[in-house]
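Reviewer 2 asked us to include a model.

Predict the structure of this chain.
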Amino acid sequence: MSAFVRPTRPADVPGIHALIQGVFDEYGLTFDPYGFDTHLLNPGEYFRTRGGEFWVVEDVDGRIVATAGLRMGPEVALPSAAVHRSAVAPAVDAARLEHAYRKPRPAELKSLYVAPRLRRKGWGRRLVSLAIEHARKADCTHFVAWSDSLFTAAHALYRSMGFTQIGRRLLHDADNSIEIGFELALAPPDAE
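Predicted model (structure tokens):
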């Protein structure tokens, strides 16, 4: 399939929502763009004002078939330690999580979604690599990705790219989802 990656535009929002709704339906999850997921009402503005970017993969028919967002800086913060120590997500190393988020200049991957027909074709890896390179050029020292516990293919992708698991967290979304956290140390662009 022919497709290309580009920064999002406001006109992409309906296509972004359709893609994510389809993925959430596939896993029995609730997509809530007017509540928990408000960052996806205007993802370009949301991510760019947080030092990052939001990318889409557009196919030849103009459909949005994959997405990824990157945010950097002070808003990338450690969630409440109480959430991490909850009985729902006991396998958390709170000290390691705290250390990961106290490093200078963190970056976080958000909203990595790929349409089923494009999975296992390298689009997820391409988007993660693009976000990592963007963060590296912005002098970020580490890169964090949180992924729903159901998205095991994404977890395998992160591990294959050198990420290490840093813990779990409970979200207070409509599904009380549990996410698994991954971290990657970033070398400066000139160190490679």
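The beta strands are 3-7, 53-59, 64-72, 106-114, 142-148, 164-170, 178-185. Residues 152 and 163 are 14 Å apart (CA to CA). We have added this to the supplementary material.
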